[in-house]
Amino acid sequence: MSGPAKTTDNMDAKAEPRLLQPRLAPSEQSAKFIFMICAALALGFMALIMVFLFKAGMGLFLANYEGPGVSLTDFFFNTAWYPTYDPPDFGIGALIVASLAVTALSSIIAAPLGLGLAVYLSQVAGERVREIVKPAVELLAAIPSVVLGFVGMVLIAPFMQSVLDVPTGLNLLNAGLLLALMATPTVASMGEDALSAVPKELRDASYALGATRWETIWKVTMPAAVSGLTTAIILGLGRALGETMVVLMVAGGSAQIPTSVFDSIRPLTSTLAAEMAETPIGSHHYYALFAIGVILFLMTLCFNLLAFFISRRWRSMGAR
Amino acid sequence: MALFGYDYQTRRRREALALFLIRASAVLVLAILGGILAFIFYNGFSAITWDFLTQFPRDGMRAGGIFPALLGTLLLAVGSLVIALPLGFGAAIYLAEYARPGALLTAIRLGISNLAGVPSVVFGLFGLAVFVGVLGFGRSLLSGSLTLALLVLPTVISSAEESLRQTPQSFREAAIGLGANRWQAIRQVVLPAALPNMLTGAILALGRAAGETAPIMFTAAAAYTLALPDSVFSEVMALSTHIYNMATSGTHIEEARHLQYGSVMVLMALVLGLSLIAIIIRARLRRGRQW
Amino acid sequence: MVTATQTAISAQNVDFYYGDFQALKNISLDMQARKTTAFIGPSGCGKSTFLKLLNRMQDMVPGARLAGRILLDGTDMYAPEADPVAIRRRVGMVFQKPNPFPKSIYDNICYGPRLIGIRKAADLDIIVEKALRAAALWDEVKDSLDKSAMALSGGQQQRVCIARALALEPEVILMDEPTSALDPIATSKVEDWIQEAAGNLTIIMVTHNMQQAARVSDFTAFFFLGELIEYGPTDDLFTSPRKKQTENYITGRFG
Question: Which of A112, B212, B266, C48 has the greatest number of beta carbons closer than 10 A?
Answer without folding.
Answer: B212
